[in-house]
Amino acid sequence: MEKLHSQVTSGYEKSIKAKGKFTGLLLILSIILILTIILSISLGQVKISPDEVYRILVQNIFGIGNNASLSSGAHFDIIWNIRFPRVLLAMFIGAGLSVCGTSMQAVVQNPIADPYILGISSGATMGATFAILIGATGFLQGFGISFWAGIGAILASFLVMVLANKGQKMTPVKLILSGVVVNAAFYAFTNFIIYMGSDAEGIKNVTFWNMGSLAAAKWDNILLPIIGVGIGIIFILTQLRVLNTMLLGDEAAVTLGLDLNKHRWIIIGVVSIVTAIMVSVSGTIGFVGLIVPHIVRSLVGSDHRKLIPLSILCGAIFMVCADTFARILVKNSEIPIGIITSIVGAPIFMYLMVRKSYGFGDN
Fold first, then answer.
1. Are 288 and 101 within 8 A, CB to CB?
2. Fewer CB near the last or first residue (10 Å), C or N of the chain?
3. What φ, ψ does residue 198 adopt, rounded to 5°?
């Protein structure tokens, strides 16, 4: 009896400790995100004090403060109309990519899956490039790029899943190879569309946009994408139990009364649409959905009730930092943000493939 009581007490203490660690990380990351936002807005070709950034943001968001000079100062336009919309979009793109990556890893039970590696981003890129250069927007008007990016993303994800499930059971190697094939095919079509395009300025913009950029972020073009990505994130937050069950496998799911196959396709569809929305406004930004969940998983484990919320915060922080470096590393110029994320993400991807033996060598 004493031994049983000791085990129950020990388990309870571990549970309390784990909850305390999660709450602590949530609080710390929230504070870091706020500080990162303020610091990012203060940096650039025109340097602004963090104190001024803080006061203007608080005044305009919460209506706190009665200093009328803040809204008429020389830096107000830079802070509120140029840099803050860009940082806000970076936050949602980072959070969206992290959530999409985490979800795909659960769906395919593979820790090296994400929309970029599995070809979903390349499908969205082809669709968006088609809409920009061919002008295939029609009655869709302002939603044309997002619509065609969505068509491309859904088509790419469908092809990857079909190829990976051909023959015997889907394996990590088959999944990655399918993603490589689909990536190559869609990027080939994208380059063909660019080559055939006659608009020189459009080709230049698409080439830069394909490497990822948040330079076009303005209040009048970020609100709908932010709402779309936010709805996708909220939906995934309602699927945490399903994502945890996917890690247990189909047999365990049957005993819980869940049809995992149906849920897989629903989640893949949502991930594809959210990815398409993000690609339509920011271009192709790779590796975020791979490296952020991996880092968070090393801190709190694979429980999606902890993994997803922390990935949202870490993804937002990472993307804001990456966009800041893209703006300030080269004077009077801007590096495509996709280059920054690839420089960081590619070595981590190689580490996962080689050191962790995900589908290679001995396990």
1. yes
2. N
3. -105, -10
